[in-house]
Amino acid sequence: MNNESGQKGVCVFSVQTDYRCSPEYRQRRERNNIAVRKSRDKAKRRNQEMQQKLLELSAENEKLHKKIEQLSRDLTSLRHFFKQLPGASFLQPGSGTDCR
Question: Has UniProt tagged this entry with the keyword Transcription regulation (predicted)?
Fold first, then answer.
């Protein structure tokens, strides 16, 4: 409790501030302060967990993009290889056997 001079724990009695000095009010304030602290800690933990998850998913996303690039290069190489084989007409568009 702060009074007008800034001192803690000193109640200045008046009609308006009398309820603030009651034990019930102080208990409610203490419980509320604890609840607020707990809520803020929970939000902070949740934010940290989300940041960690973001880092993990970003790394996995980058890894998957690299894998896509590698597989695309492999596919291009294999298509080129099969086009060089004798009788590669089965790979020509419109032949009905394209594996794409």
Answer: yes
Q: What is the pLDDT of residue 99?
A: 55
Q: How far apart are CA 9 and CA 1, in angstroms?
A: 5
Q: Rounded distance, CA 16 to CA 27, Å?
A: 19
- The pTM of the full predicted model, rounded to 2 decimals, is 0.56
46-68 confidence digits (pLDDT tens) = 999 999 999 999 999 999 999 99
Backbone angles phi, psi at 8, to 5 degrees: -85, 145
Q: Are 8 and 1 spatial neighbours (Cβ–Cβ below 8 Å)?
A: yes
Q: What b/e readout covers 8-45, taking b as 16+ CB neighbours within 10 angstroms?
A: eeeeeeeeeeeeeeeeeeeeeeeeeeeeeeeeeeeeee
Looking up tokens 């000095």 gives 21
9 pLDDT tier (thresholds 50, 70, 90): low
Query: What H or E segment, with its residue span, contains residue 73?
Result: helix 23-84
